[in-house]
Amino acid sequence: MNTSLYNAHFGFHERPFSLSPDPDFLFWSKAHTRAFAVLEFGLVSRAPLTVVTGEVGTGKTTLIQALLRQVEDDATIGLISNAQGGRGDLLRWVLNALDVEAPEGADYVSLFQTFQSFVLQEYAAGRHVILIVDEAQNLGSETLEELRMLTNINSGKDDLLQIVLVGQPELRDLIRHPSLRQFAQRVSAVYHLEPMDLPTTRAYILHRLKHAGGSGEEFSASAIRHIHEEAGGIPRMVNKLCDLALVYASSADAPAVDEATIRELIDDGLILKPFRDPLLLSGAIDPFGKAAE
Question: What is the pLDDT of residues 204-238, one digit of tens each?
Fold first, then answer.
């Protein structure tokens, strides 16, 4: 069934639980408000490194998009997502994000000089450079250290480059590793987005329903409680469950989603939960894949 059909059934003007990051739907929970404040603090204070982490689906990318809407005109911003590779590859990602042409076949030194010249030119023009790296846990320790080295570009007391790292909990574990102690010392602020509790999940669902033109009564209290338990407080999982539940309820011509609807779609196997390595969660192995000492 086309999900747009349930809009008419419930009186929505758009899907309230789309999985695509949308700052217009951003729910300012206490955790998201604090995370955003940390990001803003990093930019205003010209912090060399700011880090925000959270589980998959907690709304980190949506926060980035909201942040980009508020950045002043005197900043040049580069956004990198899912960057990987070895030494030199990072600089190519960075230059590409900033729309700076890299010399063909350039070695690492040439790439660095190109990047440094660009940053200095922006500074001379009264602008500063902000580099936002999403899914930064994919970079690895060597590449993170390379990022730290980039922040050494400065002019007197001014930091010319700011880096914002956003990633999954593994990123926080990486930064804590002894091999990255110099990196950790340059991080001005770290914030970790925790999953939502039940009252926050309830408020989140109500917010999205009303933003889409609903009454807020499209889900029973028991349905919301079951959604929270199944989703583990992760906003993206909440969206998946709510979206499918509205499909089920409208196909049955039901006035609202009840707990039976949630149980039915779970029993039908429509939701796949992400796998989390129990050894990593328990600390039996570190994020580098080694046995914990």
Answer: 999 999 999 999 999 999 999 999 999 999 999 99
- 85, burial (CB in 10 Å: exposed 0-12, middle 13-18, buried 19+): middle
Report the 10 Å Cβ neighbour count for 114: 18
Instruction: Please list, residue by residue across 13-27, b when 16 or more beta carbons sit within 10 angstroms of its beta carbon and e when fewer do.
Output: eebbbeeebeeebbb
**Rounded Cα distance, 250 and 192, in Å:** 37
Class of domain 30-193: alpha beta
187, HSE (Cβ side, Cα atoms, 13 Å)? 24
* Cα 245 from Cα 265, distance rounded (Å): 7
CATH 3.40.50.300 domain position(s) in the chain: 30-193
Range(s) of the chain covered by CATH 1.10.8: 5-15+196-267
More confident residue, 158 or 240: 240
CATH class of 5-15+196-267: mainly alpha
Q: Global pTM?
A: 0.80
Cβ-proximal residues to 226 (8 Å cutoff; 6+ apart), any chain? 259, 262, 263
Summarised one tens digit per residue, pLDDT across range 277-288 is 444 444 455 544
